[in-house]
Fold these 3 entries.
Entry 1:
Amino acid sequence: MTLKTQQRFKSETGLAYFKTGVGSPIVLIHGVGLRAEAWLNQVPVLSEHHTVYAIDMPGHGESDLLADADAGLDEYVDLIATWIQAEIKEPVIMMGHSMGSMIALNFAARYSGICSGVAALNSVYRRSPQAKQAVQQRALDMIENPVLSNVTTPISRWFDDNAKGVEKQMASLCEQWLLAAPAKGYARAYQIFSQNDGPKDEALASLEMPAIFITGEGDANSSGDMSKRMAALCPDGHYVVIEHARHMVQMTHPDEINQLLVKFVKQCCIKIRNQL
């Protein structure tokens, strides 16, 4: 399956994004090795009543790689926050998937004044020692030996091995994006992803805005228990586990995800109105 690439805008800071719709802003951040089009099933629905900004993570798609080779998660977040302050100029509802959810949660905690709500899809929290060792080894392999087999191995973790129909099409799209991803940007982001183990408990406890944690029933590395534990720490948090789904829930189960996200956005908007 092929998908037409959306025309991008490019910020002065090197961040590429596309936007559509009219209304209060929603920002979407994809996971490692992918690109803004990973939200292809959410953008049409969310943009019916909102301006939706889908970004290419730094070093992905058409976004520039951060100049600092030692940049970590905070620097990725700071770049996106600077862009939001310059381009959008009002609080946003932040949604992220996988590493994008790490960025979204970090942003919500550190830039709470410009965040009205945060949705974290397939987010990690306190990996087991075995899972931590495995993800860090994958990151090391990617840096030391960036061959195609390393690049596309996530497909077997993200999708059902016997994927058919829509899921097979989505797996094909993700494989294309992984193969086309800039090698340095992909490897550097995966290294950061492997070194982070989810938000600090005090950061989650500080989130006064609505927060939702969504994952797939079959996602062993971003499990339902992880989502449940993070939601329990948030003052206004809840979680949902999607049955018969793995890591790419927004692509393989769009109807369920869209219903959840539309409801969540309405919840955020109601809270904003009540605070005025």
Entry 2:
Amino acid sequence: MPNILLTRIDNRLIHGQVGVTWSSHLGANLVLVANDEVAEDDVRQNLMDMVLPETVETRFFSLEKTINVIHKAADRQKIFIVVETPQDLLTLVKGGVPIKKANVGNMHYEEGKEQISSTVSVTEDDKKTFQELDKLGIELDLRGVPDEKGGDIMKLL
């Protein structure tokens, strides 16, 4: 069983909050970005790598590769998974990645989205995806940083 400490939805993927604050708080030694586009983009990977402390490794896998290899993770790997969207999270869960809890951190506002918190805006599809994740028993904790008081995103939908 892979040692997944937490999975975070953040459309920015790895940045200061994820790279320093969350990985340190969790004690993660591996940040796995599960994202089809970034898995193929060396420039974005290099930019994200610069944010992390040297003690934290990174992997940039497609969603399919994450599903296929996560169960081969070594016991010593303390894994923090970062995905871009709730749909990506649902793909991983349905693919058998043993995720029980997810942090909903940042989903930018744009035209056609409803802002439900200061850092999270959702479409109707996002709402349906969160509802499906909730039915699958995934705990969905809304918070930007670890020392913030979290909340159940389902109460805001």
Entry 3:
Amino acid sequence: MCNAVRDNPERAQFVGYNPQTVRFIAFCLSGLFAGIAGGLAAINFEIVNSGYVGAEQSGTVLLATFVGGVGNFIGPVLGAILVTYLQVMLSDVTEIWQLYFGLLFIGMVMFAPGGLAGLLMMHAPLWHAGVVHRVLPAYLLTLVPALITLMGVSLIIEMSYRLLVKASDGTAMTFLRVPFDAAGPLPWLVAAVLLVGGFWAFRRTWLVVADAWNDAILRARTRGRA
């Protein structure tokens, strides 16, 4: 009914549900789970300060919700797990981990509006038909150039941050435990090759993914009719 009230409150009211009551109950339940999460966080970290009720914490929660997917109940759970894990991991690797969060959010909004849960639900018919294994090799093939492209983008971001913000600390830096000079032309050339080459290979392999997806959908429909 929450989904029905969100999509069409007039129709929900027509079948006998009060949209205001449904929204009120949903708001109360969200406050209940938020209070439970806050209590568990206080027990876990043994400290409570103004940062827990600030705009940054609220933004992180919204980010996790949209990344996980607002259209499914499991979506915010998946988003919370992913965002928390990346927050802990990336904060130890780079000082601008929040920028990567923003890029992840933009990418999910542009290319996967349904979030992680939406992507998983897309594969539900393939899973029920037993043909999901037909798209896995194509996904693994696409993963390699995608990681190469991500590496190129990350290298450009880290070098730009070093030269523009951390210039007082010098131009020497490390990326993936590889030391180099960010002011030299070679690192920028390598980053450009990784970015352009990886993206070109990613677009080429995306055709393989499309063919594998269409074949799997066709087989799933055939088995469903059978």
